[in-house]
Specification:
The complex is a heterodimer.
Chain A (H helix, E strand, L loop, with lengths): L1 E11 L4 E10 L2 E6 L8 E4 L4 E4 L1 E6 L12 H11 L1 E6 L10 H14 L3 E6 L13 H6 L4 E2 L9 H13 L3 E4 L4 H4 L4 E2 L2 H6 L3 E2 L2 H17 L3 E3 L5 H12 L4 E5 L1 H5 L21 H13 L4 E2 L8 H4 L16 H10 L6 H16 L14 E11 L18 E11 L2 E5 L2
Parallel strand pairs in A: 1-4, 1-5, 6-7, 7-8, 8-9, 9-10, 10-13, 11-12, 13-14, 14-15
Antiparallel strand pairs in A: 1-2, 2-3, 5-16, 16-17, 17-18
Helix pairs in contact in A: 4-7, 7-8, 8-10
Chain B lengths: L1 H5 L15 H17 L14 E6 L5 H12 L3 E6 L11 H10 L4 E6 L4 H8 L3 E7 L5 H15 L6 E5 L6 H12 L3 E5 L14 E4 L2 H5 L4 E4 L15 H8 L3 H4 L7 E3 L12 H4 L6 H21 L3
Parallel strand pairs in B: 1-2, 1-3, 3-4, 5-6, 5-8, 6-7, 8-9
Helix pairs in contact in B: 2-6, 2-12, 3-12, 4-5, 6-7, 6-12
The chains are: A alpha/beta, B alpha/beta.
Chain lengths: 425, 313
């Protein structure tokens, strides 16, 4: 099977490509990138006026299977991914049961093989049941194919245990994805601590609960030499701590999510539970710091933190509602709207954050369009506008913080390993 | 006065004073004045809401607010149904939205909701087409309480503009404080909030208030003081100094009032804790308008019920 994408504006920062050029795909791989390729192919896609880029590598996705198939499944989640231009996802381990044993990972791999629409990589749990008490058998999980470890949704509170995990991860060459939150400080909070929590009459989550734990995780990164990745950075202080650590040569990477550079706490004034997210939407100043961090390289990656929840878990009193927003279908458009639209980064810069860097952090050979690489390619209409509507969403859960928002950029084609897994109508 | 004539009510719901304009509030207070007069008649009933059904949906125990709404609705000839959390299907797990939609399907016209969660009234209002009146949601707002406080103040002092009003007590967890601040600041009143530092919520100065933890300062040139009920039974109050200590430092006593304006008005949303936030002498004294507030509450709630029922859906 051959496929040609003609006349698209190809963005591939890994190979410093930013020009109108053709791509020839053969089977699962990219065969050639060159001007005016003249070859016979079963499929020819005319991409004039479109952006052609490596598929998104979303390193923070909750697919909920096994255990909470009412929220999302591997099938539905990866269908949403394909629609959003995401060709690789890292499935987080807070499933039921947690991804903490050889057996459950074998089961998961089987489900992925049978039902996934895009590539799914697995993040194993750091501790058994993600309870922060006892380490999982990390080397066994590694042999089963996990590429990262995390207790996402929780932080390992015990410093000694976390250090042990980091040393183990280093030995196994696994990146450790840190959900940096000190629960003893965030407590029962539901929105950012400050004027907004006062105005809404809700309990606050201080920035301290995040950045203090970011500081601890970085300290342990330094001590262990392990590759530490800070998930969902939301506030100015965390950005500053990571910036300093990088300057000091500590091996740390960081991601933020689209809602942290496009929304702020004031968007919560109508008690929209889809915007109840952990860490919470912060202040306008924090948004500026997140953007600054993206621009200067402190924040390496953009990931959705796709967190599906059913209507009965979301359409209830704010305090009782679950934390999280889905994001696979909107992350690219939000990024185009906020980052390209406001000239904060170039297209090459955005592709680095959303495709190339996450692949590098995870150590997977993705995020580029070089010949011989997996043909994970998306074709995007960069100017087309659309309004996010519940009924457009293909994710099993509809809890998007962006419902009702006008966004720029539509994915026209998603090609995963040479197969067209999504085509817009 | 020209403003009054052009004022028009456009709100389906009353969710909080943050969301009302000064003109909206004036309209309610003026309307409440005409309704207040009805309460002194021999036959205390007008047909303004005849044929309408008001449902009091209370997720938190409340006697005074519930009864006040009930009396207000009945004075307007509405039919009133009371649903308390214990006697309804709420405990069996029906969601607030489902309960609201069922009440709507029963062809009720107005839901008066009291809920322990901030934002509950807002969410309910978004999910039903009938009117929702917030009778207190969590720590967020208690708009009718603030309206009756403002009505009482205006009645006593003739105006709200430029008044010095101090609110004393647990500001952090008080919906009454928040609604009073939103409402009174719209009229250019000067608000001081007074509490121990841990009961001052973050950023409250952005609502345009002064903050102090010195009760004498709060009383200093106050025209009126709103004394909040201290809820020592709350879980997160366990770390707090004793009731006795609170009374010593913040309690409103005759001794303290000697340093205040002679005709200072003492308000309290009730129920009062005698000897905790206010002494019996002050609560029952000549400066106290606590019982007038209760009567005024009916008039204000009549006005609110009337106007939301007039809103075009």
């Amino acid at each position: 099977m051959k496929l040609i994408i003609k006349n698209g504006h190809v963005i591939d920062p890994a190979n410093k490509i930013d020009e109108v050029i053709d791509i020839l795909v053969e089977g699962e791989k990219i065969f050639k990138i060159a001007r005016a390729i003249d070859a016979k192919a079963e499929t020819v896609i005319e991409a004039a006026g479109k952006i052609v880029m490596p598929g998104i590598v979303d390193m923070h996705v909750h697919l909920r299977e096994p255990g909470r198939e009412d929220k999302e499944t591997i099938f539905s989640g990866t269908k949403a991914a394909a629609k959003g231009g995401v060709t690789s996802v890292l499935a987080m381990p807070n499933t039921l049961p947690s991804l903490d044993s050889m057996g459950i990972i074998k089961t998961l791999k089987d489900i992925i093989k049978k039902t996934a629409n895009v590539d799914v990589f697995i993040c194993g749990a750091i501790t058994v049941g993600r309870l922060g008490k006892e380490l999982t058998n990390i080397s066994v999980l590694k042999k089963e194919g996990i590429i990262a470890i995390s207790d996402d949704g929780a932080s390992v509170d015990n410093d000694e245990l976390m250090l042990k995990a980091l040393k183990e991860a280093k030995k196994e060459k696994l990146v450790v994805v840190c959900h940096s939150e000190d629960k003893s400080l965030s407590g029962q909070g539901v929105v950012n601590f400050g004027f907004t929590s006062t105005r809404l009459g809700l309990k606050g989550i201080s920035k301290e609960s995040e950045y203090k734990r970011v500081g601890r995780d970085i300290k342990l990164a330094e001590e262990s030499g392990a590759a530490v990745h800070i998930a969902h950075v939301s506030c100015a202080e965390s950005v500053e701590i990571i910036r300093k650590a990088k300057k000091n040569g500590i091996k740390v990477t960081a991601e933020t999510a689209p809602h942290y550079f496009s929304l702020n706490e004031e968007d919560l004034l109508g008690y929209n539970t889809n915007m109840k997210i952990n860490p919470p939407l912060r202040t306008k100043d924090d948004v500026l710091s997140i953007i600054e961090g993206l621009k200067d390289g402190t924040i390496d990656a953009i990931a959705s933190d796709h967190a599906p929840h059913t209507e009965s878990e979301k359409e209830i009193e704010f305090e009782y509602a679950e934390f999280g927003s889905i994001g696979l279908e909107t992350e690219l458009a939000v990024s185009i709207t906020e980052i390209i639209g406001k000239s904060l980064l170039t297209w090459g810069g955005l592709v680095e954050k959303i495709s190339l860097n996450p692949a590098k952090i995870l150590g997977i050979d993705k995020g580029t369009l070089g010949s011989g690489k997996d043909a994970d390619i998306i074709i995007v209409s960069p100017e087309k506008e659309w309004v996010v509507r519940k009924e457009y969403l293909v994710s099993k859960s509809k809890n998007s913080a962006f419902i009702g928002r006008k966004l720029r950029g539509i994915v026209e084609y998603t090609i995963c390993k040479g197969n067209i897994v999504y085509k817009s109508n | 006065m020209t403003k009054k004539k052009t004022a028009k009510w456009v709100h389906k719901d009353l969710l909080g004073l943050e969301y009302l304009s000064k003109e909206d509030i004036e309209l309610i207070l003026d309307t409440a004045e005409s309704f207040r007069e009805i309460l002194d008649r021999k036959i205390k009933k007008v047909p303004a809401l005849r044929g309408k059904t008001v449902v009091n949906l209370f997720y938190e125990p409340s006697t005074r607010t519930r009864v006040s709404f009930e009396v207000a609705a009945k004075r307007l000839s509405a039919d009133v149904i009371n649903i308390a959390v214990e006697s309804s299907s709420v405990k069996k797990g029906e969601t607030l939205n489902d309960t609201g939609k069922n009440i709507e399907a029963l062809k009720a016209d107005i839901i008066v909701v009291r809920h322990n969660c901030s934002g509950a009234a807002t969410m309910l209002a978004r999910n039903v087409n009938i009117s929702v009146i917030n009778a207190g949601d969590g720590w967020h707002e208690h708009p009718t309480q603030a309206l009756l406080d403002m009505f009482t103040l205006r009645g006593k002092l003739g105006k709200l503009e430029g008044l010095n009003v101090s609110i004393v007590g647990d500001i952090a967890h008080s919906r009454v404080a928040r609604s009073n601040i939103w409402g009174l600041t719209k009229f250019g009143a000067n608000i001081t909030v007074c509490a121990p530092k841990i009961l001052i919520p973050p950023g409250i100065e952005k609502m345009g208030v002064k903050i102090t933890d010195n009760i004498d300062e709060a009383l200093g040139n106050a025209d009126a003081i709103n004394v909040l009920r201290m809820q020592f039974e709350r879980d997160d109050m366990k770390a707090f100094p004793s009731q006795l200590e609170y009374f010593k430092n913040f309690g409103i006593t005759e001794e303290r009032l000697k340093k205040a304006k002679k005709d200072i008005i003492i308000m309290h949303p009730g129920p009062i804790n005698r000897g905790v936030e206010i002494s019996s002498e002050v609560a029952d004294g000549t400066n106290s308008v606590i019982l007038e507030q209760v009567t005024n509450g009916i008039a204000v709630r009549m006005a609110v019920l009337f106007w939301v029922s007039q809103a075009k859906l």
